[in-house]
Amino acid sequence: MAEVVQDAHEFWRPPVASQIAAAPAMLEACDGCGTEFMVAARFCHVCGAARQTQQAGAAVGPGWTRHLEFQNIKRTLGLSTASLIAFSIGLLCLLAVMGVGIVYTVQSFADFQAIQYYRVQWLLAAVAAFLAGILLNRTTNSKT
After folding, report:
1. What pLDDT does 79 receive?
2. pLDDT value at position 6?
3. Which is deepest, 24, 54, 89, 92, by most CB within 10 Å?
4. Which three-class secondary structure state does DSSP give residue 43?
5. Does one domain contain both 36 and 72?
6. Across-strand partners of 124?
């Protein structure tokens, strides 16, 4: 019976020296208590210290791309989801206004009028989207 108990604790024994020499890059020890981290663990299972995941030449976090996430933009601007979508549509309409001038060339007065007509349509769509964004924005500071 004592042999069974000794085999059950095999998991908690420290790694053998030959295993450490075989794969030194994969094994990491905790800076706080010195125990080996579990596979894919972000924290030490003994003392709870965070694992240092910074490797040579590798970025730790997503960097500047985290600012482009929908939830971060929503929190930064203080807009509701529907309002942020309407605001984004308004920005796309403004980009279309600028794109009309780049794509179409003026060769006659009729072309100039047509281009201005397209720009007015896109500007009206942008105004409608921004107005929808204002109306859809839920304010949390309203008193009931």
Report:
1. 85
2. 55
3. 89
4. strand
5. no
6. none
pLDDT mean for each 10 residues of the chain (144 residues) = 55 55 61 82 83 55 72 84 92 92 88 92 95 83 50
d(CA 15, CA 29): 12
Is residue 75, in this structure, part of any structural domain at all? yes
Please state, in angstroms and rounded to a whole number, the distance separating the CA atoms of residues 91 and 122: 10
Other beta carbons within 10 angstroms of residue 127's beta carbon come to: 13
pLDDT of residue 59: 47
Distance CA 112, CA 100 (A): 11
Q: Note whether 15 and 32 are same-domain residues.
A: yes
Measured CA to CA, the distance from residue 86 to residue 75 in angstroms comes to 16
User: What per-residue confidence (pLDDT) applies to 13?
Assistant: 60
Tell me what pLDDT residue 52 has: 77
Residue 85's closest CA among 28, 133, 22?
Answer: 133
Query: Do 11 and 38 form a contact (C-beta atoms < 8 A)?
Result: no
Tell me: do 131 and 72 sit in the same domain. yes
Tokens of 18: 């030959």
Angstrom distance (rounded) from CA 102 to CA 114: 14
